[in-house]
């Protein structure tokens, strides 16, 4: 693992003297309104009244990422889960678990591309990313915990941690390289798009960390309390006992904490620190900076919506695999 961390670190380009630091320090703005530049060169929003057609377009664009998440859930429950249950050998189940992880990683890139469409604001994008990450992480975790062999299940959990970290480093590296290629020659629209992309990288990373632990707890609850009832189409999971599930989860959480800490450290000192700070700030997106309303920003709105999304996706998945 140490060798892998070192290899990932070597991928990140040197940012000193490259001019990217000044760019990422600019405030993150919503792209729903037109942008302009004031006399000091700072980005400001110009309020525009949308027509009925523009509002309809925004509604459609906002719906597309959520439909994509639903399609991915259907792929898991109608294709990957039946394949997983087709044969009761460790090698077969490990191979299908790898396939599930590859679908998760590939779909994540597609989800981000859809969210980058103009019209989706910052906190809504955060909730969409959370919904996709939680759904796919929960489904992958159920598969991994359902492998009969404890050692194979632990190996697959560790493989999943390393794979997702490698993907996170890869896309962060691409983000930096794309910024460095500009050489400081940015149009106002390019600055807004690049800042939004940086915020999406921070949102995706933070959501990925949160859902890894949340999905592990949800998967344990499903396998311990729901599967023994025989109401779910997860027959192979009944061979997994409770002590084995706990052991596999603990084996997965340990490396996950280390890799998450490393990824956050790498991104913060690699140029995304301002976006991570804005993501966890209670004031970001608040309508006022004074009084009791100053804490009602994007973080609180996203938190409330994510509770609903967690419950909704959990119920949807249980219904999808019900007999």
What is the overall shape? globular
Number of domains: 1
The major β-sheet equals: 2 strands, antiparallel
| Strands ordered across the widest β-sheet | 1-2
Portion in beta strands: under 5%
The assigned structural class equals: mainly alpha
Helix-strand string: HHEEHHHHHHH
Task: List the total number of helices.
Answer: 9
| Distance between the amino and carboxyl termini | 41 Å
> What is the mean pLDDT?
78
Transmembrane segments: 59-84, 152-171, 213-236, 257-275, 303-322
Keywords: Membrane, Transmembrane, Transmembrane helix
Explain how this protein is built.
- A hairpin with a 5-residue loop joins β1 and β2 (43-46).
- Helices cover 72% and strands 2% of the residues.
- It is an all-alpha fold and 323 residues long.
- The chain has one domain.
- Mean pLDDT is 78; it is low at 13-19 and 25-46.
- The chain crosses the membrane at residues 59-84, 152-171, 213-236, 257-275, 303-322.
Defining key terms:
transmembrane helix, 323 residues, membrane, mainly alpha, transmembrane, globular
Secondary structure elements and pairings:
Elements: H1 2-11, H2 20-24, E1 34-37, E2 43-46, H3 52-86, H4 90-115, H5 122-145, H6 150-181, H7 188-226, H8 242-280, H9 298-320
Antiparallel strand pairs: 1-2
Write a concise synopsis of the structure shown.
The protein is mainly alpha-helical. The protein has helices spanning 2-11, 20-24, 52-86, 90-115, 122-145, 150-181, 188-226, 242-280, 298-320, and strands spanning 34-37, 43-46.
């Amino acid at each position: 693992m140490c060798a892998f961390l070192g290899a990932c670190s070597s991928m990140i380009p040197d940012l000193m003297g490259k001019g990217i630091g000044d760019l990422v320090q600019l405030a993150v703005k919503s792209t729903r309104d037109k942008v302009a530049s004031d006399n000091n060169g700072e980005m400001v929003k110009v309020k525009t009244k949308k027509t009925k057609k523009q509002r309809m377009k925004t509604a459609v664009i906002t719906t597309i990422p959520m439909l994509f998440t639903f399609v991915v859930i259907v792929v898991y429950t109608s294709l990957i889960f039946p394949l997983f249950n087709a044969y009761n050998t460790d090698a077969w189940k490990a191979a299908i678990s790898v396939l599930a992880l590859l679908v998760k990683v590939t779909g994540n890139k597609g989800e981000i591309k859809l969210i980058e469409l103009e019209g989706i604001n910052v906190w809504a994008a955060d909730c969409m990313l959370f919904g996709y990450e939680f759904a796919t992480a929960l489904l992958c975790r159920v598969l991994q915990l359902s492998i009969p062999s404890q050692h194979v299940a632990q190996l697959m959990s560790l493989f999943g941690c390393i794979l997702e970290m490698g993907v996170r480093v890869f896309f962060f590296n691409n983000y930096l390289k794309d910024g460095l290629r500009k050489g400081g020659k940015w149009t106002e629209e390019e600055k807004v798009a690049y800042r939004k992309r940086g915020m999406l990288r921070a949102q995706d990373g933070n959501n990925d960390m949160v859902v890894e632990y949340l999905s592990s707890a949800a998967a344990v609850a499903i396998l311990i309390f729901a599967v023994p009832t025989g109401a779910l189409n997860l027959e192979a999971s009944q061979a997994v006992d409770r002590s084995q599930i706990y052991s596999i989860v603990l084996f997965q959480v340990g490396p996950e904490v280390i890799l998450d800490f490393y990824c956050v450290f790498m991104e913060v000192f690699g140029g995304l620190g301002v976006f991570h700070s804005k993501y966890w700030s209670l004031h970001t997106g608040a309508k006022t900076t004074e009084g009791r309303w100053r804490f009602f920003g994007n973080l609180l709105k996203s938190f409330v919506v994510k509770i609903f999304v967690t419950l909704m996706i959990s119920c949807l998945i249980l219904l999808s695999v019900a007999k």
